[in-house]
Write a structure and sequence with these properties.
Radius of gyration: 15 Å
Helix content: under 10%
Shape: globular
Structural class: little secondary structure
Distance between the termini: 34 Å
Largest sheet: 3 strands, antiparallel
Oligomer: single chain
Protein name: GcrA cell cycle regulator
Strand content: 5-15%
Amino acid sequence: MNQLFRLPQIGEANPIAEPSAEFRVPFAQSGAFVCKFIIGEPSDQAVCCGAPVADGKSWCAYHRRIVFEPTRPGRIR
């Protein structure tokens, strides 16, 4: 029998929980060391994730998995 699954769950060894909505902040007010992933449509009133980021990246681990596609062995680019 076939099972339904979300595509990002394939091969994911350590699932990462989505950051809480309480971190969200207007993009213009986001400071350093917070996730800059824009929630919804980009506009002059854009809201970003705002979750803490300690490693100097632009996105938290959850949104980094959405933004970047993992490399696959044998894949030609």
